[in-house]
What does this fold into?
Amino acid sequence: MRSMTGEEWMVASQLYAFLGNSLLSPMSRTESVGLDPAFWRELGGLLDGALTDSAESLASWAERASADAARSEVVQRVSVEFTKLFVGPPKPAAAPWESANGPVDSHVGFGEATFAMRERLRALGLELCNENNQYEDHVGIELLYLSELCRRASEEASGAACDAAAPDAEEIASFIREHPLAWVPRLREKVAASQPEGYFIRLLDVVLALLKWQA
It folds into this structure.
């Protein structure tokens, strides 16, 4: 397995940050760049084309959505989809926490995985501050955690002065395999069952493509 370059580490960091934030808040509170087909097609060309198919699916979805409605209407539609999937009421259709996506179906999000992620964040000197009071094992937070790991690895690979110890590449790959890759496919199944033609099923496909490429 070849080593990732400093540029690849930074690209991965930026992608995890964008995807993580996109899964933490409705589009009405975040960037609506995800509705730009050109954005997804450019993204699909990154990392040796590992994201091409999933990114093209989102580009095509964005083109169809833009043809049907004004941008503001599509933003609102995606925000409503976000609420139905990940918030409720009465409960999320696809609970976005690792604790809720184990072998036994559950909507409970506060469990062993939550405590484990809390410790990982603390070990990096990070403190969770989010207005939605999400559990630490939220899919978006796990992706933001990976973003920070990749940022530190990028600094080391590029020979830049690091503000903290950089993680080992295999440690990062192990985290990906044992955590997000082990449960996000189950989350995707729940999203597919609830909103099979929506934005987030396609966004999760991009997430999974990125995780698989790095793992």
User: Anything to note?
Assistant: The longest helix spans residues 139-157.
